[in-house]
Amino acid sequence: MEFNQVSIVFLGAALLCFILCYLAWQRHLVVAALEMCLLMIAVGFWTFFVFCEAASINVEDKLLWSKISYFFISITPVFYILFIYRFVENKCFTKIHHVIFLFIIPAITITFVWTNNSHHLLWTGFSSMTKQDYLINFQRGIWFWVSQLYSLALLLAATVKLLLFLCGKRHGLWQKGIWVMLSGLFPWITSIVYLLGFKQLFGVDITSMGVISSVILFMIGFYYTGYYNMIPVARETLVETLPDGILALDNLNRVQDINDRAKIILGIAIKQKTGIDIRELSVPYKTLSDAILSYEKQVMVQIGDEPDIKTYRIIKQVIRESPGSRVIIIRDISEQIAYQVKIKATEKKYREMYNMFRLISDNMSDMLWAKDLGKKYTFVNKAICNDLLKAKDTEEPIGKDFSYFHERECKKMPDNPLWHTYGEQGDLSDDLIISTHTSGHFDEHVLVDGVVYDLDVRKAPIFNENGEMIGVVGSARDVTLQKQTENELVSAKIKAEESDRLKSAFLANMSHEIRTPMNTILGFISILQEKDLEEKERSEYLNIVKESGERLLNTINDIIDISKIEAGQTDVTLSDFDLNELILNMFMSFKKIADDRSLLFIRKYSIPPAYMYVHSDKEKIYSIFTNLINNAFKYTKQGYVELSCTLTDTRLDISVKDTGIGIPADKREAIFERFIQVDLSHQRSFEGSGLGLSITKAYVELLKGSIWLESEVGKGSIFHVSLPIEQADFFKHDA
Q: Domains of the chain by range and CATH?
C-alpha cells in the first residue's frame, strides 16, 4: 500500500465514523441511538475500504477492496432511512419483515458484485489506471443504475419524512433538525451530481466526498447543537404531549421555555412567545405565580371556587448549568384529590357496611364462611367458629383450610376415627362448586367432637368484576333436631299406617276366623236337629262341628296367648319330659292332616336315648313345633312337609321344610309380626289368625333361642329354630 492525500482523507473519515458509533453506543438506550450506531458502522467500513482501495498500488487489490466496499455502500441507505424513521418515532418499520424487505435490493446488488464476471450487470469493465487515479473508474451496467435509484429513493424518503416532521415545530428545533437533514442530503446530492457525469472533484471521487461531508456534519451536530443527546425531536414530542405544564425560568423569573399545557394553566396565550415575566400574570393566576416564585421545592395550590376547584402540585428543579434558573412542573392533581376523597368516603362506607355485616353474621345461628380458590377461609362468623371449627375467634381461621382444625380436633381422640369428621364432605363439595362454577345444595352428616350434626349446606361461587371466579361462599344450618323430628314423624306415620293396616287385617282376620267356624257350628247343629237324619251323616256332621269348634278354640287360644305375651304375663314353666314322646305324639296328630291333604309328612330327627329326657318348658316347645308344622301345612298344596330335629346335651335344633308357596324377600321379616300372613287380602285362601309365627318367635326368645328362615317364592320355605336346653334332673343323677 501507498499512503496519499486521498487515502488519508478516507481514513480520517472512517475514524470519525467509528468515534460517532462509539458515542451513539454510549447512549444506546436513547431513541434512535442503535440505528445511528449501525449507520456509522456501515459508513465507517465503507470509507475504510475506500481508503484501502485508494492506498492500493495495483489494479487487482483495488478491485478487491472496491468489491468489499460495495457491501457497505449498498446497506448504508437502508440504515439511514431506519435511523430517520426511528428518530421521528415513526412506527413504520417495527416488524422484522418490513426491515427484511428494505434489504432485498442491497442483497441482490452484493450478490451481483461477486458474480459480475458471469453477467456484467453491475459493471461491464473499467478504464485503464493512471498514476493520478486513486479509485477504479468502472463502466457501469444496468443493475448499477437500479441500485443507485433505489438508494436515492431511500435517501429522498428519509429527507421528506424529516422535513414533514419538523414543519409546525417550534423554531428552536430547526437548528437541531437541520443538521440531521443536511448530514443526509450530502450523499444523495453528490450521487445525483455523479450520475450527471461529474465523477471527480479535485481528483477525488465526488460520491465519497459526499459521504465524508456527511460524517463531518454529523460530528459537528453532536457537539454544536446538543444532538449528541439523541433526543431533540423526541423531546419536543414528549414535552408537548405531557399532561403536566412545564416551563423554564431564568434568574430574572422570565419564561425561557414553556409548553402549551403550562400556557393553558397559567392563562397565557398559546401564540405568546417566551420572555414573559412570571410576576406579570393576571389576578386569577396570581396564586400560581406566587407558588412558583416561593422557595419551597414542592407546593400544593388550590384555585377556583366550588364545585370547580382546581388543585395543582408545583415541583421545582434548579438548572445547575445556569445559576438562578429552574424548571417548573405544574401538575393538575384535581382528579387525584377528588379520587382520594372518594376513596376515603368509600372506605368509610365499606367499614360501616362491614361492621354491620359482621354484627349481623355473628348474631346469626346459621354458619357463614367464604373461601378462596385454594379453599382457605377468607371470612367466618362466630357460629361456625364455635360449632364446627372450634376456633378461638373469627380471626384464627383466616388463611387456613379445614384440615388445620380437623387435625387439631382429631388429636383429642386419636383412637376414634369418628370423633371429628367435619370438613371431609365439605372439601368435596367445594371442588364441585369450583369445577362447575354453579351453586349447590348439600346435606352433610358430620361428627364434631363426638357430637352428630345434620347440616343443610348451601354454596355458591364468588366472581370478581371481570367475571373471574375467585372463591366460594357457603352457609350451613344445623337441622339435626329437625331431621330427628322428621324421622320420628315418618316412623310414627309408618307405624300408624302399619297399625291401621294391621288393625284392619286383624279385624278382618278375626271376623273370618270366628264367624267361619261359628257359622259352620250353628249351621250343622240346625241340620243335626232334624229327626230323619241318618246316623252316618249325623256322625260326619258332628266331626265337622268338632273341627270348627277346635278351630274356634285355637283362634281364641292364640288371642289369649298373644295378649299375655304383649302384656308380659307369659312365664317360662320348666319341667322334665320325654322329648321323643312329645315329637312322636305331635307327628301322629299331623300325619292324619297330611294324609287328608295328600301330602307327605317326613320325619327326620336324631335324638340319642341318653339325651331324650330334657328340662325345659314343655308347652312352649310343643307350641313351637305345632305352630311351625301347622304353618307349613297351611301354605303347602302339594309335595311334602319335612320335620328335622337334632338334640345334643346343650342344644335343640329344629327345622321345618315345606314345598309351599314360599315367602317374598320383602316379607321375611314382617311375617313374624302380629297378625301378618303372606297373603293379607280379605279373600285369602289360607285360614288362620296370623298369630302363630309371632307366638312362636316370642316363645323362642323367652327360651333364649333364635329363629330364622330360608325361602324361595314358588319352591317353599325352611324355618330354623335353635334352643338352648338342659338334661332332665333325674337323668343327670343317673348319668
A: 5-234 (1.20.1070), 243-332 (3.30.450.20), 364-478 (3.30.450.20), 479-569 (1.10.287.130), 571-734 (3.30.565.10)
